[in-house]
Amino acid sequence: MLIRSGDNGFLHPASSEITPQAVYRQRRDLLRLMASGTAGAALASWAGRQALADTARPGKLAALPGGKSPVPGAIAIDKPTDYKDATSYNNFYEFGTDKSDPAENATKFQTRPWTVEIEGAVKKPGRYAFEDLLKLAPQEERIYRLRCVEGWSMVIPWVGYSLSALVNKVEPTGNAKFVEFVTLADPKQMPYVKSHVLDWPYTEGLRMDEAMHPLALLAFGMYGEVLPNQNGAPVRLVVPWKYGFKSAKSLVKIRFVEKMPPTAWNKAAANEYGFYSNVNPNVDHPRWSQATERRIGEGGGLFAKRRKTEMFNGYEPQVGQLYAGMDLKKNY
Ligand SMILES: Nc1nc2c(c(=O)[nH]1)N[C@H]1C(S)=C(S)[C@@H](COP(=O)(O)O)O[C@H]1N2
Ligand SMILES: [Mo]
User: Fold this and answer.
1) pLDDT for 317-331, tens place per residue?
2) How far, in Å, from the CA of 170 to the mean position of ligand 2?
């Protein structure tokens, strides 16, 4: 059930009002470790990197600073992935299917002027200029884990605001049960849009309560700067508790609909990619296990150490409630 709450007028599922105990405990333990001076080398280096991620930026693109986020779970206690890795190992099939293709093929991608069209079951549909979207709510820094369905993960300091801020602004009607996200498919700029690897445009979708969860992020930047083209400039979705493919890049349309919308990966292989796509170590992909993951930057090859994948990518305290009573093997 959705309730209107807080002086920012955001809609939240009632359960997310409560500070999740697990998150609280994690942060308290970290603070204690640091105060007692017994924080291990890993933690010290994390803290160092953290300070760096907060203050320094790569200096490649225009600055886009983000303020402290009030959203529980918005700051992962993980060492952020190096900017170089986060911008050279990408999935953005419009620009190619190799991990290095997006960085190489998106260098001339034109992201201005840019508009995002809002349509469907809303009181305020229309074309929203990128510049207006950017200013719609305060930009926040959110350090999220991103878990790709392929079995690797990264930790990225995004800059953006809760998607719910935009949703509230456009005033969905009672018929809006799902949100569909449509991304750019421009064959003149995106070489693989002429190919048939996916049914273009790349689309994604969320249930309304998922879209309203404060962790669902509309991202405009990362590492304190505007988004690099290969990471989904100028604006993308980031849903940290779902497999990476739900986080659609370079959004051009957001549509409020009554029925569960089709999604690009579900259309490509329905038995492999469901609508929900919540990160779940207990539900294997038909062709591989989802129990573990490789953190990019921690070394690869034969001696790659793998981490245990966490339920909802570690965001269970915040989002588990959204799926209470659902069979997650059926709703994969
Ligand atoms: N438009 C579009 N969005 C997309 C994709 C894509 O191919 N096209 N790939 C998805 C996948 S599979 C992942 S894992 C993430 C990767 O985001 P990153 O390159 O910024 O880490 O983007 C997602 N968003
Ligand atoms: Mo992915």
Assistant:
1) 999 999 999 999 999
2) 29
